[in-house]
Write a structure and sequence with these properties.
alpha+beta, Cytochrome Bc1 Complex, Chain A, domain 1, 2 domains, 4-stranded antiparallel sheet, 10 strands, globular
Amino acid sequence: MRSVALGLWIAAGSRLEPPELGGVSHFIEHLIFKGSEHYSSWDIAHLFDDMGAEANAATSREHTVVHAHCLDDDVEQALELLAEMVARPSFVELDREREVVLEEVAMYEDTPIEVIHDDLAAVVFGDHPLGRPIIGRTDTLASMDRETVAAYHRAHYVNPGIVVAAAGHVDHEQLCGLASRYFGPEPDAVVLPASLTLPPVRHAARFTAKDTEQYHVCLGGLGPRRADEDRFAAFVVDVILGGSWSSRLFQEVREKRGLAYSIYSYTSLYTDTGMTAVYVGSRAEAVAEALRVIMDVLENLEDDMSEEAVSRARNHLKGQTVLSMESPGSRMQSLGRCILMGQPVLSVDEMLARIDAVTVDDARAAVRRYWSPASWSAACIGPEPGPFRAATDGFAWEER
């Protein structure tokens, strides 16, 4: 190929933020595109455009990544631009960009299909830092001034806390030389790691009233950590539960009963814990039945871990893994995340071997550990609480 995916990975995400600075990492993600010591926002925009490159950024609970996809001939210029943006932002358009972020927050809050996942995280993790919304809140964003943002940047977006990752038609020695040039040593800089604690198991239900056509519901509980050996077994269970067209939830809720258009499961991994979850969107007349079917599937999930089901899920996972790793962007993402989080970088063959090693007993053990309805919580956004409340009898109830 003739392209390179570049990424700068920073150990700064919503879980590291003090409550009064909720959303500062996401705010900085925006601000780094607004100019640096040597480049204006216009310079950044037209230089990437002139290269025909694609640049973007994303903030998560545990990291921020600023990335670009460019031609191999443009690696040096692209990395110089990314380094300038990340390490030396000017923060000159802070108030104007604040308004943009506040509009993004407003748009996000008008999109229940997105908000519901943060609502579930808040219920599952409670007061734990992983329960905080990534995008931030209107009140905290409105109170951040330039010095506050700059001070947070100086504490986190520095050499010891940044990983440079690349994949594609790239020369490793050249990349190392460029990284040394654009990220000089900062011997006095100290990047504090996240405080790792295990959140308590909760069994709560949160309802948020909103005038919507559908009820948007997420159910979930604590899942595997990023380093847990049983994470591959959890991935297999997730495929069987709701991660494919032939999954139990897709077949039982959508195909056989027509109770939902969108239904799926997912697993999120973090440093000290994780989350397993299910999403469904359903109309008022169908949501109670959809939730009953979901709970029935969860109650019988261990019995569904047959040799045939596990074998098919392993094959599905292997196919998806290989297909995803054909993309330089996906390879860069995997490399950067592993190095930043201190995880071993597994080759494709090593990942396939880990998936192939998952047995029926492993899958059943993962079900018992992570998919017990008695230790799950739920969140719902909808017009009135009746159908959701009826389906969550026995949960500690929260209503907003």
